[in-house]
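INFO batch 0412 | record 1 of 1 | parsing
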Amino acid sequence: MQDCELTKLFAVFLPIISIFAREMKIGNIEFGNSPVFLAPMEDVTDIGFRLLCKRFGASMVYTEFVSAEALIRDVKSTISKLTISNTERPVGIQIYGRDVEAMVEAAKIVEQAGPDLIDLNFGCPVKKVAGKGAGAGMLQNIPKMLEITRKVVDAVKLPVTVKTRLGWNHEQLIITTLAEQLQDCGIQALTIHGRTRSQMYTGQADWTLIGEVKRNPRIHIPIIGNGDITSAEEAKRAFDEYGVDAVMIGRATFGRPWIFKEVRDYLDQTGTKNLDFNAKLDILEELLRINVERIDEKRGILHTRRHLAATPIFKGIPDFRQTRIAMLRAETMNDLLAILEETRAKLG
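INFO prediction complete | emitting tokens
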């Protein structure tokens, strides 16, 4: 067969090869092609929000992160975070802490809750976590991070994964070496947020090092990229340019659980139209009702405000400032629904 014919065949089969290359597994969990995950986020990824994201196409969801110390002390509010539903599977429970024994014991408790995997948080940058040596604080104590990881892997039967950052700061970009070390501890997937701890959530996520980890021939576990994925186009670019096995979306889901549908439709080239304003408002109203029913009226409204404040569906509405203020001050579900419905009527 001549070279030109081989070139033509390669051009035909390359898209097919690329598709199969994107099929992903963590342990026995199969995700198919180009999976898109919901990031674990404190005060955001409660069960109601996770179920909505799952409905709209999230391939994997995670609980809010769970303090190992609070878990082994049997703190009621922490124990409640372990509640999961079969409808949201596959679902991971994420734990954080700085003490080896506490993390091992917490992992055993979490395993009894029946998630599909346990994720170790070595990436949270907030002061009350990282400043105490947990979360991203572990980036300053790699030996202990690796000891925790190794001992948790040995203590449980579920797949164990890790989420971390590029390094503590730009003078300590250690992720390429750290990825191999964590893999050697027995983890079955690694999520990398493309920022350092010192960046917190500022600036732009740097995906070049994520791509470098993925291209490392010694890395054989799935690499999940995280940071600044706010659109379907950015998700596709992450897959195409950096070769990650999955992408994880965090803050862009606030008030926008349907982003998973937008990304999934774009990646799969379904040609499906995006939801209109009314459909999106229906979803936010549903989220409000879910939260009120799940908790109580006062706290359910407070829990929904983050989404109402962040949702992009109200952007560009003329003279919306006073309506937004009223919306965020509403104290009863009926008052809040009335404001939302008034906004719908004005735009109709």
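INFO post-check: Residues 3-21 form the longest helix (19 residues).
INFO record closed
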